[in-house]
Write a structure and sequence with these properties.
The complex is a heterodimer of chains A (202) and B (469).
Chain A lengths: L5 E8 L7 H4 L14 H4 L2 H4 L22 E3 L12 H9 L3 E4 L4 H10 L2 E4 L2 H13 L4 E5 L4 E4 L4 E3 L4 H9 L3 H6 L2 H14 L4
Chain B lengths: L5 H7 L2 E4 L4 E5 L2 E4 L4 H9 L10 E3 L18 H17 L2 E2 L10 H8 L7 E4 L13 E4 L2 H10 L1 E5 L2 E8 L8 H12 L7 E6 L1 H4 L3 H9 L8 E3 L4 H7 L8 H11 L12 E6 L6 E3 L7 E3 L13 H14 L14 E4 L7 H11 L8 E3 L4 H9 L2 H7 L3 E2 L20 E4 L14 E4 L2 H10 L14
Parallel strand pairs in B: 3-4, 3-6, 4-5, 6-7, 9-10, 9-12, 10-11, 15-16, 15-18, 16-17, 18-19
Antiparallel strand pairs in B: 1-2, 2-8, 13-14
Classes of the chains: A alpha/beta (202), B alpha/beta (469).
């Protein structure tokens, strides 16, 4: 996965509470391999496109100011529902590298970290405020530093965020965690031997 | 020393390494794979890795398999065919346990696991599907993961995780006549919200949970993810042990005795501390129907569609307005006045034998007013239902009796609503477009679904006379 160190980019507000992964990518697209391409168009497909496949004007990512967004500022419980990692494929294919939200579905949160998309939790009021600012100054940028755990908005206001050390460590390095895990091979083997003996009925 | 919870007892026994930063390497006892797990296998293959413990890995197709035929030739879409055939290739190449399409043991992974005795108390289990929480009904830590994590478990049999907070939901009292596990969990989600469980592992306890059958408990744990939590657990008891005994992969003889003794040590200690405790009044629960696009949008069948103008939170009000618009409902409309176009009885939430018996008891001697699909959770559930004559009751009532799979819960196999169509569905998600583009889903119990099928609209199943099947 690609490392995430810092990013200054346009942010798009998505005002959908409980935005489930079925909205982020409808189930009928999951049969397509990542390598098949086309994932950029699957992102929010049914909210972005009408039955004829034409863009719906009202949807935020179809507006000129937000087309090049690399950051999403969302509402509560972003990415709840299905475990489909294809939701992250769709985000990445569109160019999104960071999602800021008051809360995330736990599985989707891990999927983001595993694929190099930075999930940032900020208080609900802060997210509401940020989305309001993005609506009033469409196309404005946010500058994010993972090292400093900070976000600067276009008005110079700074927000700081918490992230688990382990997730930060991996994102900063773009680390595939299988590689990391294999460093613990000895401990896994030892655990398996002891576990197998203790629970021989398994 | 403070007591430990069921969750902590299992978690602590599976930590291989805990890093200074709080991340734990968790050992995974059993891994379930389905046809949709192909991304995980692709990642594994691309990295040139093998399945570390094929005998701890079980595979069965469920998401993409048609339910009207067991013939691959009938699958017209080349990608769906590639996926159904792909699990066959993956299972054989990597040497994992495999219940192929057409085998009586095949079915929805979350029905097959407990049915085969793969799911046991005290284990850690994962599957690349969010409804893996189902298995926690047997007293284990079971959770859904994404494709990268699937590839990781296949390669290493471990997973990096942070220990979640713990929540205990005590359901007091007794569930009334016609009130099921489905109604209980919809009531819980309505009370704590669709993100009420985020970051927590939830243990369900209390008299109403203890009194519940294993099938009902699985329904409750299944929808724990709809409250935001990956983990739903219920302490193993005599019912759990009785359910497991004699199943194919369950321990036998002396091992069975040792396993039983261990399982008896698992329930939360009297002094166990939980980060949050919630009480739900089981006596006050009633059959539920959802009205919106989040499982928290649920009302009792005697209630009406809520009025957004009564909502004080701005975001919540606009979400309600959007949901009513999408669902084609009016504020204040009695939910029982809502007519349905199709009924779906099935899904990992409600496709076990008890669910089918409950639906059949309502269907018996009545006629479907709308197209109704009954999709058993596995080939073995199907066989048992047929041995009990349930299939006859369904077909005489004009319901369609199908082959096992996920079917219209997610529609990946082609079982879909048409745009604008409204369903009464025993599945777990009423999200926009979940059962097909522009579909409108109302979540209900199997008995309520059958009642809607024979009435053409939602109806309080408690007011319909039913006889035991």
């Amino acid at each position: 996965m690609e490392a995430f160190v810092s990013l200054s980019a346009t942010a798009a507000p998505i005002d959908i509470p409980n935005c489930d992964t079925d909205q982020i990518i409808p189930a009928r697209f999951l049969r397509h391999l990542r390598t098949d391409g086309g994932y950029d168009r699957y992102l929010f497909h049914d909210l972005r496109f009408d039955d004829a496949g034409d863009e719906r004007e009202g949807f935020v990512l179809n507006q000129a100011a937000f087309r090049s967004a690399e950051i999403i500022v969302a509402d509560v419980n972003w990415g709840c529902g299905s475990s489909r990692e294809n939701a992250v494929d769709a985000l990445l294919a569109f160019g999104i590298r960071c999602v800021i939200a008051p809360s995330f579905g736990d599985i989707h949160y891990n999927n983001c970290v595993n694929r190099g998309v930075l999930p940032i939790r900020l208080p609900r009021e802060t997210c509401d405020q940020l989305r309001a600012k993005l609506h009033s100054s469409p196309g404005s940028e946010l500058s994010i530093s993972l090292e400093a755990q900070s976000i600067d908005d276009a008005e110079g206001q700074r927000y700081t965020f918490e992230i688990a050390e382990f997730d930060k460590f991996r994102l900063l390095r773009g680390l595939d965690d299988v590689g990391l895990t294999l460093q613990y091979e000895g401990a896994i083997e030892e655990f398996e031997a002891q576990h197998g003996e203790q629970y021989d009925w398994l | 020393m403070p007591g430990l919870s069921l969750f902590e007892k299992i978690w602590n026994r599976h930590v291989v390494v805990e890093r200074d930063d709080g991340q734990s390497l968790l050992y995974i006892d059993r891994h379930l794979c389905h046809d949709g797990s192909f991304n995980g296998f692709s990642q594994l293959r691309a990295a040139g890795r093998k399945v570390r413990r094929p005998k701890q890995t079980y595979a069965t197709p469920d998401h993409y398999t048609p339910t009207h035929t067991a013939s691959i030739a009938a699958v017209e879409d080349p990608q769906a065919r590639r996926i159904i055939e792909g699990i066959d290739v993956n299972a054989k190449e990597f040497g994992v346990h495999y219940f192929p399409w057409g085998d009586a043991r095949q079915g929805i992974a979350h029905v097959v696991g407990p049915e085969q005795g793969i799911t046991l108390p005290g284990l850690t289990m994962v599957c690349g599907d969010s409804h893996t929480s189902t298995h926690g009904a047997l007293g284990c830590i079971a959770f859904g993961i994404g494709a990268s994590e699937v590839a990781h478990v296949l390669a290493t049999q471990v997973l990096w995780q942070r220990k979640p907070k713990t929540m205990r939901i005590n359901v007091t009292g007794t569930l009334g006549f016609g009130v099921t596990g489905k109604d209980l969990i919809l009531g819980v989600i309505r009370q704590i919200g669709a993100d009420g469980g985020t970051g927590y592992a939830i243990e369900y306890a209390g008299s109403a949970v203890e009194a519940m059958s294993m099938e009902g408990r699985m329904t409750v744990c299944n929808m724990t993810i709809e409250a935001g939590s990956r983990f739903g657990l219920i302490a193993p008891d005599a019912k759990t042990v009785e359910y497991i005994e004699g199943r194919t992969y369950a321990p036998k003889d002396e091992k069975w005795e040792r396993a039983k003794a261990f399982w008896a040590s698992l329930p939360s200690d009297a002094g166990a501390k939980f980060d949050r405790e919630v009480t739900v009044d089981g006596d006050a629960l009633a059959p539920m129907v959802t009205w919106g696009n989040s499982p928290q949008d649920a009302v009792q069948v005697t209630e009406s569609v809520p009025d957004p103008s009564q909502e004080t939170d701005d975001d919540r009000r606009s979400a309600m307005l959007a949901a009513l618009d999408y669902m084609g409902l009016k504020a204040g409309q009695p939910i029982s006045s809502v007519a349905v176009d199709k009924v779906f009885i099935g899904a990992c939430t409600n496709s076990r034998i008890e669910d089918l018996r409950a639906a059949a008891a309502v269907a018996k001697g009545r006629k479907a007013q709308v197209p109704t699909l009954v999709v058993p959770g596995s080939g073995l559930v199907k066989q048992q239902a047929e041995a009990e004559g349930l299939d006859k009751i369904f077909t005489e009532a004009g319901f369609e009796w199908r082959l096992p799979g996920c079917s219209m819960c997610v529609g990946m196999n082609g079982d879909l609503l048409r745009p604008g169509e409204r369903s009464a569905s025993t599945s777990n998600r009423n999200f926009r477009g979940r059962q097909g583009k522009d579909s409108r889903t109302h979540l209900v119990s199997p008995a309520m679904a059958a009642a809607a099928a024979v009435s053409g609209h939602f109806v309080d199943v408690r007011e319909m006379s039913t006889e035991a099947v």
